[in-house]
Every structure is written in structure tokens, then in C-alpha cells.
Amino acid sequence: MAMAEINQAVHAGFSRKRAFSLAVPAAVLAYLIYVAIAFDLAGLAARARWDNGALLLQDFWSYKTHVTR
Amino acid sequence: MTDIAQISADYRGIAGRKRLYSFLLWGIFAALMISGLRLANDRNAGGFWDGLPQIFAFPSELIGEAIEKAGALPGHMLSYLPALIETLNIAAVATLIGVIGGGFMALLATPGLAPWPRLVPLFRRMLDIARAIPELVIALVFIFVLGGGPVPATLAIAFHAIGALGKLFSEVAENASPKPVEGLESVGANWIQRMWFGVLQQVGPNWISYAMLRFEINIRASAILGFVGAGGIGYALRNAISWGQGRYDAAAAIFILLFLTIVTFDQLSSMARERLVRGNAGGRI
Q: Which residues contact B221 (CB under 8 A, 6 or more apart)?
């Protein structure tokens, strides 16, 4: 009888831990999805100007006039 | 007897010379300092002493206007709540990325735990680079590429957080006991299993406490990054301040919001850290 009771407590602890270890990644994933929508990631990918960044990083090793009047 | 007299005379001589040297050094230091400050003062527009009383001109103007329009403050605070939430989101996502990336980098950069011990210096230097580049510079590059908004700020802060957290995490992991790792290795666990079942349990409380400390720092950093065009409450604050007179009540409302947020999260995380590391409640100041 005592063993069965201890067993039950142990199993309850296991299932609680299992639920917890699933809930935390799920919560993080849900939060990331919410942020992706709030930050408008899809629209941002369309608006990204990689040529601009390449131009800026080029200045680390080369100097060239890109714009003249 | 003469020995003692000799020793004390020598000692006095040496002590006197030491005093003279330190006096001379202080004199040179003071002369350099004064001449440098005078030069800087001469080349400045406006003098140091003339401008000194004006330090409090801006704060007093801001506070005066805020008190004058105190009735509008709650409305302003409510209208800036979405910007505040964006700032908090920036900080939270950056901390998440920083914890995951920093954790991986830390385990790769810890002697004794690393899967490739020869590459530990390489990963350490990568973490150094991530810490060395200022957030503002990374944010400006990303803003140039992606345009203004919260994502450049998130990426910039996350990059910096990986470097900072990676170093702190790896220092914690160095102190972890190797016994569970060796036990797991002896029964054939691979590297990921060894880290997951042997190391993370030991370093977990300390890692979480460092992550929460980083979250506080990231809230402040994301508020500052708003000034260069990344979104959030810093952007709203810059706009309110650049509008100048007549909009200082909005700036004051943002200052109050930021102050309350930072105090709240400082208290929350110090409470949680106290509970994690020492196992008792409390920790508020």
C-alpha cells in the first residue's frame, strides 16, 4: 500500500515534469511567432536592401566616391 | 646601536625620496591636467565656467513644463505603451537568441567540455569579437540594410548578448563537476547527451540568473538604440525631445515609463535570482 502511494507521487512528479518540459519550448515558440508577426518579419524581408549593406561594409577596405553631384 | 641608527637614517632617506617622487608625479599630473583643460576650454565654443550653471537648464525646463501639464501625463503614458511593449519585445527576443547562441558557444569554448579542444581559442576569439563591436555600430549597419524598425535593434543586441553571455556561461561551465560528464561518457553518451544530461543541470541556476541580468541590460540597450532609428520607446523619446518646447510633457511621460519599467524588471529579476541561486525569497531593495 505504501509502495503504491509512493509510486503514485513519483508518477505524478514525472508527468508534471514532462508537461513542464513540453510547455516551456511551446511557450517560447508561441512568443517567437507573436514577435515575428509584431515585428512584421515578412514585410521586412521584402524591404531589405542588401546592396546598401554591401556598400557600407565595402568602406572598411576600399574608398570610392559612390555619389557625385 | 650604530646599526639601528644607520637603518633608521636609511629608511628616512628612502621614505623622503619616495615622498618627493610622488609629489613630483602629482605636480606633473596636475600641470598636464590643468593645461589640457585650459586648451580644451580655449578651443571650445563658449567657456566651461560660463556654461556650468546651464547644466540644469534643460532638466528644469522639462520638469517645469511636465508639472505645468501634469494632467496630460497619464494620457501620454497610455499612448506610448505600444512603443514600450516593442522595446520589451526587442529586449526579450535578443535575450532569447543570446541565451541559446551564448549557451552553445560557451559549451564549445569551455576547456574540458568542448567537443573539439583544439578549437577552444577560436570560439573564445569569436566571443571576444561579438563583445568588442559596439551595439550601436551593428545597429547602424542593420538599419542601413533593413531600414528603421525593431529588427535591426534585436539583431544588434542579440549579437552583443551572445558574446557577453557566452563568456559568463563558459566561466560557470568551467566550474561544473566533470563526474556526471565522465559517467555519461562511460556508458556511451554522445556530446549533446553529455551536455544535456550532465552539465545543464549543474549550470542551470547560474545561467538563468545571468540571462535575467542580461535581460535588464538589454532593456536599457534597446531604449538607447531607439535614438539611432531602431524602433521602440527610445525612438519615441528622441522624437519627443527633438520637437522641443511644447512637447516636453511627452518626453517626461516617456522618462517616467522607462524608469518604472527598469525599476520593475530590476526588482523582479533580483527576486527571481535570489530564489534561484540561494533558494530563499526576498532580494528586493
A: B91, B135, B157, B160
Domain count, chain B: 2
Rounded to a whole number, what is the distance in angstroms from the first to the last CA of chain B?
A: 61
B113 phi and psi angles, rounded to 5 deg: -110, -20
Q: Do B149 and A50 touch (CB under 8 A)?
A: no
Q: Please, are residues B203 and B176 in contact by the beta-carbon 8 Å criterion?
A: yes
Does residue B167 belong to any structural domain of this protein?
yes
Tell me if B151 and A41 make a contact (CB, 8 A cut-off).
yes
Nearest chain B Cα distance for residue A9, angstroms: 22
* A38/B149 Cβ within 8 A: no
Query: Nearest to residue B219, comparing CAs of B270, B264, B250, B276?
Result: B264
Q: Which residues of B touch A38 (CB under 8 A)?
A: 86, 89
- Of the candidates B86, B93, B145, which has its C-beta nearest A48's C-beta? B145
For residues B83 and B190, state if they share a domain.
yes
Sequential pLDDT tens for chain B (285 residues): 578 889 999 999 999 999 999 999 999 999 999 999 888 888 877 777 777 777 888 788 778 877 877 777 788 888 888 888 888 898 999 999 999 999 999 999 888 888 888 888 999 999 999 999 888 888 888 888 887 778 888 899 999 999 999 999 999 998 888 899 899 989 988 888 888 888 888 888 888 888 988 998 898 888 888 888 777 888 888 888 887 677 778 888 888 888 888 888 888 888 887 877 776 655 555
B111 and B150 belong to one structural domain: yes
Range of the domain at B19: 2-44
Nearest CA in chain B to A40: B151
